[in-house]
């Protein structure tokens, strides 16, 4: 295909030559091997895994061992405010005195740079290792930093996405972290599956939904995804749960309330809480400011601070 050929020849300023046909085939091979059950032998090396692939995986594991807790933020539905939740979870953990990284693996719609006012930032580092963008102590990495324009479309198939996600874990200098919050795109496709397989051990997933059935029907699939790959569900957050009047503070239920809590009860997973529609949240995202940092005294910020308490109690 002409468009696909043109993309393969286009080079983004990322760290290794994973655009070569050899590396794309290597990522496809590693992805396939890691999907096989009981694929490791007694040395820790996977069946059919080459020495080079094994060495690369060991390097990745060394990087991951420097990160105490790894949490993926998921939703089965787009437009539920998942990235907003990810940004503010990371900010809340940072404000609680932790070392925190925020990794955006939404390859086709990386919104984290916009939401944090980092659209003009570029990661530093060397050809071998990138430095995440630092925002007041929060370490941030996103494909959005590497695009030539915010309007640039990323037209990639699975192996290309797996390759860049692997490099964001292996070739970015995250250093010692207490938490790495990973913002995934909606659904249960390449990105969340790749993250879970590459990391191997995640503390769990935070699932974001909105109250109405149209959202919860799809979000339930994310919970079943977690169960199928034996990933712990840390809890469900119901976003856009009622509208907070900016003048009087009264909450009006615009969407049918309680869908997130009902789903959590039905599926037997924790319900972390409900975040109302607050115009200040939208304003913060559009102006590139983390809501919790700039509206810390608001009632909605107090709700968000409560959401992180189970995450602060993770073992290890």
Can you walk me through this structure?
This protein is of the alpha/beta class and 316 residues long. It has a single domain (2-35, 48-312), classed as P-loop containing nucleotide triphosphate hydrolases (Rossmann fold), CATH 3.40.50.300. It is built from 13 helices and eleven strands. The protein has helices spanning 2-9, 21-34, 51-64, 82-95, 112-115, 158-170, 190-199, 213-228, 259-267, 279-286, 291-294, 299-307, 309-312, and strands at residues 67-74, 100-104, 124-125, 130-131, 133-135, 138-142, 177-183, 204-209, 233-244, 251-252, 271-277. Strands 1, 2, 5, 6, 7, 8, 9, 10 and 11 form a nine-stranded mixed β-sheet that branches. The radius of gyration is 20 Å and the shape is globular.
Keywords:
316 residues; alpha/beta; Rossmann fold; nine-stranded mixed beta sheet; 13 helices; 19% strand; disordered N terminus
